[in-house]
Specification:
By secondary structure, this protein is α+β, with helices and mostly antiparallel strands. The chain has 17 helices and 25 strands. The protein is about 35% helix and about 20% strand.
């Protein structure tokens, strides 16, 4: 065997090997072949932050197999993922497996797993990009320094088993701060007044009060609303002003990692982790009509770019499916407000637009179909013509008051014939069709209604809105959004309730401790600045070691100064209505290493404890029992049937239905 390709995933390996045929063997690393040791820091802070990589025990056999395979071949193609993580894995392979200088080692990259893309990549091999490797190393080392230095502080001052993370701690603070905003929120009363008006031709439409004597009016009480209602019931109504306006609405750009995760969460309730798992399957290859091929391009990206081939495919398909009216004169190109396309060079798109979702539905699971259908429609729609609306605003005078009616008529549906973002679908747009009106036309008041409202607190973060906030703040990158939320869930810092992220007691405690004693660790601006420096390392503009040093030296000094000043956190017991079944005294909820539990207030005389059973409102698919939250002996959260041990149903992923 003269040629061997190295990839991470065995599923990807099977797909690629079929494309290349005889003379090529494709082997998988099953992820990283080297890593920092778990039992110690693994970074020599006195020797310019040199990492001490080891081959983890669990991959020893895999590395031995790689050695025996690679040592015999002439050409080695390192075909790991097209991002910094993939570049680092490729480099680690060359360090873990001693290669002969006479062997030709090439790094190849591709954004889709199709026959043409793979063959082109093999012909376009290059050297490993050490700048990308350095950027990944710097992130890994920074995260290790924060985690291994701060976590012991949390064990000592809060409770055992906790962890701090350079990016996860910022995300947690966002969730905690939002919850406190909600707790501190004081609703304000306000009233709306709506008039149903008749034209001379007995055509009915609605208008809402907006002004008094040409100034914006805010009605704050029932008394004020009643006074205005009395005056409006006596007023004469006429059309004061008509403002028709044609609106062009452009389609949303193609998916990048963050927007795919957001839209998937909004539409299907999928967690970012689940979305990325499904996208990985579509990327690595699905067998359709006897041939396995990747259905989408690489799913970890922050670029809106589409290849010329993809643009041509989309533009040729649009008039066939609809008509030439739905095809704009030129392709659409999208740019980010902040240039940050470092992880990949193309948006998430179908590899072949002719594979319509319906045509391959039989080969996909229901979840794969949902995500592929979303990607296919979004990408095609982004190259379709604008939607056009005629929006009309009508101001109605009622003596000193002004009311406004708005209506919208669709002139051309454009891209909305195929796809609308969920946030667009949900947006409250007044679509009433207004009658034909003329300025100064008299109107008759048929009915006036007033309605009490109260201002609402800020919404809690959902998976989608948190990812959007992280991205807008420059925190994290495409490969990190899903792990951030998963880690916060696994540590018990947050919980997901009805698709919103709720901070738990320990989440508040950890955030308060870090914010008080290590404020820069939870600073959005500071964390975003680190991300920008990592991007600069990836671009080869700066060296990674000074970046780590600039962070670590003040961090270490602050750690030494503050550790002894931190008071031990005493978790608050939460009262319940439950009585101890041993002594009859009240039981309270306490927080422990493995989550919350019920304990008798008679401790230490009575040491009775019970598990807090949290029913998630979903029935077991095996026997119809309640699915409840449970934890392993090591504290990892999972979901199982309440009828255990009679029923052994269990899953790591929270069931959604």
């Amino acid at each position: 065997m003269e040629n061997v390709l190295v990839v991470e995933s065995p599923a990807k390996a099977k797909t690629i090997e079929k494309f290349l045929g005889k003379g090529y063997k494709v082997v998988a690393t099953y992820g990283h072949v080297r890593d920092l040791p778990k039992s110690r820091l693994g970074i020599d802070v006195d020797n310019n932050y040199e990492p001490d990589y080891i081959i983890p025990r669990k991959v020893n056999s895999r590395v031995k197999e790689l050695k025996s395979t690679l040592i015999k071949v002439k050409n080695i193609y390192l075909a790991t993922d097209f991002d910094r993580e993939g570049e680092a894995i490729a480099w680690h392979v060359t360090q873990a497996v001693p290669l002969d200088k006479r062997q030709k080692v090439k790094r190849i990259v591709f954004t889709e797993i199709t026959k043409d893309a793979i063959k082109k990549a093999v012909n376009d091999g290059r050297n490993i990009d050490l700048s990308l490797v350095d950027a990944q190393q710097a992130r890994r080392i920074l995260d290790r320094l924060v985690g291994y230095k701060l976590s012991p502080v949390l064990w000592k001052k809060v409770r055992a088993g906790l962890s701090a993370g350079r990016v996860q701690s910022v995300a947690l603070k966002l969730i905690v701060d939002r919850e406190r905003e909600i707790e501190a929120f004081k609703p304000e009363e306000y009233w709306s007044l709506t008039a149903k008006l008749l034209t001379a031709k007995q055509e009915l439409f609605e208008a809402e009060l907006i002004q008094y004597q040409s100034k914006k009016i805010e009605v704050k009480s029932a008394e004020e609303a009643k006074k205005i209602e009395t005056e409006l019931n006596k007023a004469g109504y006429r059309v004061a002003k008509i403002l028709p306006k044609e609106i062009n609405k452009s389609p949303a750009p193609p998916f990048i990692t963050s927007t795919l995760q957001q839209e998937s969460a909004r539409r299907f309730g999928y967690t970012p982790k689940k979305t990325m798992m499904i996208a990985q399957q579509l990327y690595e290859g699905i067998a359709t009509k006897g041939e396995s091929t990747g259905l989408i391009s690489y799913m970890r990206t922050d670029s809106f770019n589409l290849s010329n081939e993809a643009l041509n495919q989309a533009r040729s398909l649009i008039p066939k499916l609809y008509s030439k009216d739905y095809l704009p004169d030129a392709p659409r190109f999208y740019k980010r407000k902040v240039k940050r396309a470092q992880e990949a060079h193309e948006a998430i798109r179908p590899t072949d637009f002719s594979k319509t979702p319906e045509s391959i539905k039989q080969f996909l699971t229901s979840e794969q179909f949902k995500v592929y259908n979303l990607i296919w429609k979004r990408t095609l729609a982004c190259q379709m013509a604008n939607a056009k609306y005629l929006q009309t605003s009508v101001d109605v005078s009622a003596d000193d008051y002004t009311l406004r009616a708005t209506g919208r008529i669709t002139l051309f549906d454009g891209f909305t014939k195929l796809y609308l973002e969920r946030k667009d679908d949900d947006k409250a747009v007044n679509k009433q069709t207004l009658p034909k009106l003329t300025e100064h036309e008299k109107l008759t008041l048929e009915k006036l209604t007033s309605e009490q409202h109260f201002s609402l607190p800020p919404f809690r973060y959902s998976d989608a809105s948190l990812i959007k906030k992280l991205e807008e703040s420059g925190i994290g990158r495409p490969s990190t959004y899903a792990p951030i939320i998963s880690t916060l869930m696994q540590r018990g810092y947050i919980d997901r309730e009805k698709r919103v992220l709720m901070p738990q007691q320990v989440g508040f405690q950890v955030t308060d401790l870090l914010a008080k004693h290590f404020p820069f660790v939870v600073s959005i601006d500071f964390t975003a600045e680190i991300e920008n420096k990592l991007d600069a390392i990836a671009d080869g503009k700066i060296n990674w070691r000074p970046v780590v040093g600039d962070f670590y030296m003040p961090f270490e000094q602050l750690l030494e100064k503050e550790t002894d000043n931190i008071e031990k956190v005493k978790p608050e017991d939460r009262p319940t209505d439950e009585k101890c079944d041993v002594c009859g005294r009240p039981m309270v909820i306490k927080s422990g290493r493995f989550g919350d539990f019920l304990a008798c207030t008679g401790y230490p005389e009575c040491k009775n404890t019970k598990t807090v059973i949290k029913n998630i409102g979903i029935k077991c698919p095996d026997d119809g029992g309640d699915i409840i939250e449970r934890r392993t002996r090591k504290g990892k959260l999972f979901y199982g049937c309440s009828n255990y041990p009679k029923c052994h149903y269990a899953t790591w992923t929270k069931p959604s239905q």
